Amino acid sequence: MKTASLKRSVFAALLLLPVLAWPHGQELKTIKLNEPNKTRGLPVMEALSVRASVREWSEKDVSFQDLSDLLWAANGINRPEIKKRTAASAQNAQDVDIYVFMKDGAYLYDALEHALVPVAAGDHRDEISMRPGSSPGGPGSAPPAKPEGPPPPQAKPAGPLSPAPIQLILVSDISRFRAGTTEVKKEWGAIDTGIVSQNIALFCAATGMATRPRASINRDLVKSLLKLTDTQYPMLNHPIGYPK
Ligand SMILES: Cc1cc2nc3c(=O)[nH]c(=O)nc-3n(C[C@H](O)[C@H](O)[C@H](O)COP(=O)(O)O)c2cc1C
User: Which pTM does this prediction carry?
Assistant: First the structure.
């Protein structure tokens, strides 16, 4: 009996090994991004002329230079001597963090270092973005987002969104505002997120890349994957890639 019970324990321990060895962010490395190329892209009026939200992305991976430039344009440091950003923020709170979900894992964009800091290993792009037609999220999934309001009469019926090689999640940490009620801080967080979002949209329009701002996020899953605090709000999702 004793031998059988020992065998069962060894078997159970062996079954557990892959679970214990599963990387939880520690196997990903910090990625130093390339210096941004500040001379590329269409002039601003031409970029505004072609800005549009897309629904389909090509399967091509985003190049390292494009990702480096995109993150700098979105909310990078443009005046290092005073540590200010490409995006304005209320009270200069710099409350908007950009999380970058790629095939191998999720990273936080560190603007001061212009680097990606690993946060969670594994491919979570589909489950966090709640694309219509994508697989249901993992533990803590929120119910599917309500579809947006009825389309204007002239609009073509919208098909499902195709997968994009990169998913950005913009998170506002309202604890960085020095003053104001929680309600006002949430408003500022939303406004600041909108400014970063428009930087992303204009960068994409200017450089032949493709994006779409999306409020549809599996917030519960994002919060648990990224270990967000109660003052960090996942605000917007930006799928990123090249047009199909
Ligand atoms: C705050 C905000 C939230 C949005 N959320 C979604 C969304 O959840 N899903 C989606 O497919 N599009 C979303 N969109 C994109 C809008 O549908 C899109 O911007 C609108 O149709 C106008 O198209 P255009 O950006 O090409 O001008 C969102 C846009 C904004 C500004």
Answer: 0.83
